[in-house]
Structure formats: structure tokens, C-alpha cells
């Protein structure tokens, strides 16, 4: 029973490590694509993704920061409905 528990703990640790690695890689790739797509759809501006808790990848959230042309940098709450839709598409 103790050996089974130890094996399970080892398996959980490996899965957590693999999950963190894959999440980080995927997040970076999605952020890269998002940063390139947003300015094309908005004909300028910038946007990027940020982790709310980069030290805890298994429980972090993702924030979207946007800077459409002619507007201040902010989060999605500051955008119009159409701008929110275009951001979601990008």
C-alpha cells in the first residue's frame, strides 16, 4: 500500500511537471500569434496575454491587455462590444 502511494505521488509529480511545461509552451505560442493577429485586425495597436500567477502555472489565470489604435492601454472592460468581438477573433 505504501509503495502504491509513493508510485502515485511520483506519477502525479510527473504529470504536473509535464502539464506546466505544455501549458507554458502553448501559452507562449498563443501569445505570439495573438500579438501578430491583433494589429492586423485593428489596423494597428498592440495586445498581449499575461498570466495572473506566473509562478503557479497549474492554477494561473490569463489576462488580455489591449491597446487599440487611438485608445489607452487597458483590459477588455474598456472596449466596445465590437472591439471585444474583434479581440476575441484575434
Features:
90 residues, alpha+beta, three-stranded antiparallel beta sheet, 2 helices
Task: Produce the secondary structure layout.
Elements: H1 2-42, E1 46-51, E2 62-67, E3 74-75, H2 81-89
Antiparallel strand pairs: 1-2, 2-3
Overall geometry: elongated
Could you give the count of β-strands? Answer: 3
Strand order of the largest sheet: 1-2-3
Number of helical runs?
Answer: 2
Instruction: Give the structural class.
Output: alpha+beta
Would you write up a description of this structure?
The mean pLDDT is 93. The chain has two helices and three strands; from the N terminus they run αβββα. The chain has a three-stranded antiparallel beta sheet with strand order 1-2-3. The protein has 90 residues and is an alpha+beta fold.
Provide a short characterization of the protein structure.
Helix content is 56%, strand content 16%. It has 90 residues and is α+β, with helices and mostly antiparallel strands. The protein has a three-stranded antiparallel beta sheet.
Amino acid at each position: 500500500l505504501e509503495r502504491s502511494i509513493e508510485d502515485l505521488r511520483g506519477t502525479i509529480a510527473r504529470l504536473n511537471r509535464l502539464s506546466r511545461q505544455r501549458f507554458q509552451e502553448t501559452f507562449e505560442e498563443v501569445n505570439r500569434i495573438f500579438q501578430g493577429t491583433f494589429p492586423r485586425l485593428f489596423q494597428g495597436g498592440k495586445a498581449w496575454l499575461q498570466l495572473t500567477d506566473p509562478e503557479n502555472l497549474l492554477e494561473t489565470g490569463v489576462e488580455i491587455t489591449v491597446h487599440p489604435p487611438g485608445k489607452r492601454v487597458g483590459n477588455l472592460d474598456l472596449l466596445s462590444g465590437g472591439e471585444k468581438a474583434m479581440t476575441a477573433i484575434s
